[in-house]
Amino acid sequence: xxxxxxxxxxxxxxxxxxxxxxxxxxxxxxxxxxxxxxxxxxxxxxxxxxxxxxxxxxxxxxxxxxxxxxxxxxxxxxxxxxxxxxxxxxxxxxxxxxxxxxxxxxxxxxxxxxxxxxxxxxxxxxxxxxxxxxxxxxxxxxxxxxxxxxxxxxxxxxxxxxxxxxxxxxxxxxxxxxxxxxxxxxxxxxxxxxxxxxxxxxxxxxxxxxxxxxxxxxxxxxxxxxxxxxxxxxxxxxxxxxxxxxxxxxxxxxxxxxxxxxxxxxxxxxxxxxxxxxxxxxxxxxxxxxxxxxxxxxxxxxxxxxxxxxxxxxxxxxxxxxxxxxxxxxxxxxxxxxxxxxxxxxxxxxxxxxxxxxxxx
Length: 361
Prior knowledge:
By secondary structure, the protein is mainly beta.
């Protein structure tokens, strides 16, 4: 009996650090929310979405790294161009560059009603309407849940608007069906911390078609028709509708892109303490004469680490940030020519910044 009780207690402790979550509508965007996503520009060959099932552990600190930033900000509809074209919208998302997504946040569903922006590069904003709308989040989802959503849009433009003045009109149509399967839960670690997450394993099957209208001949249907299938693994918490981390794959399961949520400010509260940290290598490509300089840290003790792209730790040293800056010299690193990952951990063991770099011996 003692063994059974002890085993139960050990199991309870093991699960305590990873809580299964249920997606709630508290994660749906509100005016003032700001989310910064980092899109990794160098896909690591060791990056995988991991296994399905309960109580999983995913560590992406050395496989999804700093890249191009995308900022999404929730704004009032009155602040977004062409908002009157979306009477059912409750919020607009400023995606930068004059582009906006219009969403309807309901009790259960978060729906994308359409987009506006200078989508054709002509200087004139256009409005695209989804019909049916695209459901991008659904409250009540938990481990084992699933749902399917079909959405699409059709837009007709003058031929001159797309650089084809000999055409009267061109019509572009997209139909997509997304299968959402919440197949795993556990803890996800990225450069910004560790989060309890629910994984949404999605499959997107889409068909894009182009019809053209010619002078005297009228509409020519299906001039170009393309179909595609792709997938995404979205690691979700209840902080925001945008994922903690995301991995996209092609129809063969090959990783095509990856990202992590670097910073989230929801209702004015920051979910990441150190969001202005920068790591740079001087000079680059790195050599034994290079220094990895990290700035923007709060004063304190840190640990510098260098990993291979396969996650093997090859160098570690203690660092002190007296004025917000730490330096890792590579002259004693004994690295071979190749690609590595440098990271800095705070005293709590959390990775606060990481990046890939090339080393030439």
